[in-house]
Amino acid sequence: MSAQKFDHVAQAQKTAFMFPGQGSQKVGMLAELAEQFRGIQETFTEASDAVGFDLWNIAQSGEGLDQTENTQPVLLTASVALWRLWYELGGLAPKFLVGHSLGEYSALVAGGAMSLGDAAKLVNLRGQLMQSAVPQGEGAMAAILGLDDAKVVELCQQATLSGEGAVEAANYNAAGQVVIAGSHALVQAVMAEAKAQSGKAIALPVSVPSHCSLMKPAAEKFALALEQTAIELPSIPVIQNVNAAVATDVAQLRSALTAQLYQSVQWTKSMQLLQDQGIQYVAECGPGNVLANMAKRLPQIEKAFPLDTQTRIEDALNAILVAEGKIA
């Protein structure tokens, strides 16, 4: 089934789909599913034809998978392949879609806002621009755990004032979990101060300091590519990262995608919006279960389903059909 057609698909009222960002990729992703379902390989072929290189080979061999310009289209394609399989197996259309960072593009393809081919070309370029915006080794990211958001922002501001460059809150992932990004030395300084204040700090294995002001040069170039890409409002509402809101016109949608490169991912607020809208079930449509594990801790979320294996997809299909009153 095409990912863009929902006219005859029943829609859920209590379920949302989440799409992961970088860090969820793994060598050999979707291999077992591809043996059972032809659409997985077909989806990878479609995206590979658009970007001009073999995304399935990168996903399976791992060669070049850690390079941002490759990681992004591979992960996007894996998520869209799982989304299409969900419908092939009889899944309901969710009430909302939301993606973490790169995952926002997967969500927009799933909602029919842009084609998979166009999205694959965009995120390939996005990765190239992000990598070239900051020389290798000069940027860093780290997860700060156990401190409240305001304290992390304060530590970032103090470090930025006292050093060269910048460090900022990049991802508000959950209560007590904020990812920071910026100049390598300043990220190290915030990590040390967070530990001194009884928090935890974990360096992230990334080559690019995403979602901070160091990415503004990349965003300016990326905006030009966005303007030349056919985009429409999705048929399923997509909650965007920078404002935890649903765009009401395409101009807003494009603007938020540009800003997403250098502004914080408002994941905590996005998940709160889902709960405020009556969402009780979420499914993570991508390899891994990072987002599902975070969602399990939310008060209104009754169940969070990963969808990265056939067994997990089938379990989620049945549980959501029952929860939505479609089967007894």
UniProtKB/TrEMBL annotation:
**Keyword Lyase on entry:** no
Q: Which GO terms describe its cellular component?
A: cytosol
Q: Answer yes or no on keyword Transferase.
A: yes
Record GO biological process: fatty acid biosynthetic process
Q: What is the E.C. number?
A: 2.3.1.39
Q: Which InterPro entries match?
A: Ac_transferase_dom_sf, Acyl_transferase_dom, Acyl_Trfase/lysoPLipase, Mal-CoA-ACP_Trans/PKS_FabD, Malonyl_CoA-ACP_transAc, Malonyl_CoA-ACP_transAc_FabD, Malonyl_transacylase_ACP-bd
Q: Which Pfam families match?
A: Acyl_transf_1 (PF00698)
The terms under GO molecular function for this entry are: [acyl-carrier-protein] S-malonyltransferase activity
Please provide the record's keywords in A-Z order: Acyltransferase, Transferase
Query: Which chemical reaction does it catalyze?
Result: holo-[ACP] + malonyl-CoA = malonyl-[ACP] + CoA
What EC class does the entry list?
Answer: transferase
SMART domains from the UniProt entry: PKS_AT (SM00827)
Q: Where is the active site?
A: S101, H211
Q: NCBIfam families given for it?
A: fabD
Family according to the record: Belongs to the fabD family.
Protein name (database record): Malonyl CoA-acyl carrier protein transacylase
